[in-house]
Amino acid sequence: MATGITPLGRKRGQANLAYNLSYPGKMPKQEVLALKPHPGEAIDLGDPQIRLLRGDNIGILLSLLEDKTVSGHIRCVYIDPPYATSMAFVDRNVQHAYTDTLGGAAYLEFLRQRLIVLRELLAEDGSIFVHLDQNMAFEAKIIMDEIFGRSNFRNIITRAKCNPKNYTRRQFGNISDHILFYTKNCNSVWHRPYVRWKPERIGEEYPCVDPASGRRYKKVPLHAPGVRNGETGMAWRGKMPPPGKHWQYRPSKLDQLDKAGEIYWSPTGNPRRKVFFDSAKGIPVQDIWLGFRDAHNQNILVTGYPTEKNFDLLRRIIRATTNPGDWVLDCFCGSGTTLEAAKQLGRNCIGIDNSEAAIAATVKRFASGRERMGDFVKMKKSSSARPPEITLFG
Ligand SMILES: C[S@@+](CC[C@H](N)C(=O)[O-])C[C@H]1O[C@@H](n2cnc3c(N)ncnc32)[C@H](O)[C@@H]1O
């Protein structure tokens, strides 16, 4: 926390929710949960770890509520629903995939009903990620605050989805989309991801070298903001913490650190903690993700399904919030990106989609893998199919 900022007690986001989003057709939660379940059609991928279901996800989610193996046991939900774009999507072979025509209140209620059921399916220590773009992400945030509780909001992750574009409109180029991250409770499964320092940044970040061991380190404060009355607010080695601050550790721990050579004493006798490069895990991942653009070069592997998401993005989300053997659920699974990432990480997964093309893409993904994007470009050139009116590749 920055110097001079003192927390006032209540945690951010813990205020009672004194507002909600109102729109025509907003169904009471109990009525949503009383809608008719439908099991959908099970598609056999020949893999007991992966369940693929075809049909409208609302009915299927409601029927999963009755399935004791998964209801209340889903550790991670990732969804990438339609974004209210008013577009029709075709795959790289110019075959119809799905249409995205709902807008406004109808769209929000469509999403809300699914989120209500998804919350019931989540484990008490589960997490949910909802991938949207600037079109609806901010309305969806309010809906998610209502359903999951504002105190369970974790992040809005901003992702760079593509390379910079040449925009002709009077606005900045839009290369970001957003992933809303909530947990069901405060004790969710969490494995913090780290990334490595780039070699050229290591010297800048860890500028000191320990003369005894030759290890590279940086110096960080040994105190933190806030006044404490216990041991950490008292003098250590005759030195009080600076005004308005307390020691980060008890004196016994500070003694231990000093004995281990992990404290740097300035010429004027001020202690600072040495953080060694070789024992640091790397840079904790923050909420801006630049390394996960969707298909952007001819060598990347894709299924050819439109709006197919970056495989490594899904790996990061699943690794951070689940353990091997856990259940992962994606009820807008498209080409099955979430399913493949979950499978590769040793998790169980349920995928749902109502599009023939999505189911076909997922079946093909598991039967013969993805293909280089360049191979689809060649196929397109030799294809005689006429492009439909609106064509958008993900
Ligand atoms: C943005 S795409 C998901 C792409 C996916 N993340 C991937 O990596 O391939 C949205 C998907 O939601 C599916 N969908 C839309 N409405 C649905 C509904 N009511 N039930 C099931 N699936 C639906 C569409 O068929 C489409 O495949």
Description:
By secondary structure, this protein is of the alpha/beta class. The protein folds into two domains: 29-193 and 286-382, 3-Layer(aba) Sandwich (Rossmann fold), CATH 3.40.50; 196-279, no CATH class. The chain is built from ten helices and 21 strands. The strands form six sheets. It has a nine-stranded mixed sheet, with helices on both faces. Helix 2 (57-64) runs parallel beside helix 3 (104-121), helix 3 (104-121) runs parallel beside helix 4 and helix 7 (311-321) packs across helix 8. The radius of gyration is 25 Å and the shape is globular. It starts with 28 loop residues before the first helix and ends in a 12-residue tail after the last helix. 32% of the residues are buried. It binds S-adenosylmethionine.
